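Before a computer can learn anything about folding, someone has to put a protein's shape into writing. The outcome of that step, for a single protein, is printed below:
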Amino acid sequence: MTPVRGGRGLQAALRSLEVLAPPDRMDFGLERTRAAAARLGLLPLGVPALIVGGTNGKGSVAALLAAVLAASGRRVGLYTSPHLHDYRERIVVDGRPLSSRLLLELLGEIRTRVGDLPLTYFEITTLVAFAAFRRRAVDVAVLEVGLGGRLDAVNVVDAEAAAVVSVDLDHTEWLGPDRESIGREKAGIFRPGRPALVGDAAPPESLLRTAEDLGADLWRRGRDFAPEPGTVPGTWTYRGRALTLADLPPPALAGAFQVANAALALAVLESTHGRFPLERPAVEAGLGAVRLAGRFETVDDGGRRLVFDVAHNPAAARTLAAELAREPRPTRSVLVLGMLADKDPAGFVRPLLPHATDLVLLSLPPPRGLEARALAARLEGGGLPPPAALARRGGDALALARARTVAGDRVLVTGSFRTVAAVREARARRGSSTARGERRA
């Protein structure tokens, strides 16, 4: 796991939680969460909820939903996973993570009252989010599915509307070997009579069939809503069933693909039939205010263009490659890659190779992380060329990438949330130590 910040009490509580319920333990099902939520009096949730699932893009859509709702004056609770640097990122109210004091209080209360139930790390965190949203009296909860949908702990909530952003191959050992199997799992968040939104341009039949069999109100991209080019250069138009918003500014999240995510977010709000009315000033303000680290995030690094992206499966790599293809090709482009053992390294790297002149592999910690040499073996076993260098720590990987580039070149850091976190944190530490040295001088 990435470091946990906050008070020492919270750090100790989270270390204890990780011992009790290891973060990498996978044990799906809704019975434990329902039983615990009933004991805690957390169901029904007490506020309208919007659920976002899918293989890729769900974090962006959840962030866009929260931003537009907040801009319309609502008090928004946002629950996402995993966190990048700090556990508190998972539970946000009014754009701010919960305080360490409140998190510690809620964790203690939940563990005391449901301690005899063998809950997973994600289940406990989900209950903390529900309790926090009650405590902070939010107007609406935006909930991101952790993995799958049907058996994910978030799915104990009957949402006002549920969206599946995309369906592709990932977590196949738990969700099934193909898009049809995975689509059925993702569709588990749909409810009879409620809006069921599909952002995938070519969804598996299982996803659509499940929604129709349930009697859900199915909204399909391209039929019921769509992003279209605006009449003014640099703008886009949202077209929904009964609403059109022309010439909108693009979302503040980098990447052309984010316009499709923004259209899905607006469709979710339109689908609630006036519960969350879409007013142009709030839409524009929300699109401009949304922030999300690690999604085609670009920073300057000594004249180099340093790009962080948490993509970690082949479909996400193809989207990332398409975005890179839109840019001028730099003389050198180093790919810094670290991945988890349950991923497909060769399938992930292959679409990115045309955009990389060097490959630096970063070791990620066990039990799920791949050591750099094991990652190299997996890539070479997939018929890909050997890496230029191996690194044990994020700072080492960044130093190796810097040594192979100059101003005007690009360094792409990707493959996992943990990879992005390790390099971002190393860069932040280096900046802090440099600043301290300058002050001492």
In short: The two ends are 36 Å apart (CA to CA). The domain at 8-289 is CATH 3.40.1190.10 (UDP-N-acetylmuramoyl-L-alanine:D-glutamate ligase). Residues 52 and 323 are 23 Å apart (CA to CA).
